[in-house]
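retry 2 of 3: previous attempt timed out while embedding iron/sulfur cluster. Reduced batch size to 1 and resubmitted. Inputs unchanged:
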Amino acid sequence: MALTITNECTYCGACEPECPVNAISAGDDVYQIDPAACTQCEGYAENPACVSVCPAECIVSA
Ligand code: SF4
Ligand code: SF4
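retry 2 succeeded.
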């Protein structure tokens, strides 16, 4: 199961460089996560790296 970014995203860009599998990209209005690429950081970090850095707390389970 992948994570998803809600409309609360402020487009700050903090999450994109944190993703170990480059699943995050800038969408038209908010950043977005490719559900086929997101591994939930399994084997990389105990908690999803993107969630840890998001100041808007807008990255949630899909
Ligand atoms: S949970 Fe990990 S793999 Fe998935 S989008 Fe966030 S940083 Fe990338
Ligand atoms: S860190 Fe959060 S607020 Fe910033 S771009 Fe990513 S999802 Fe949006």
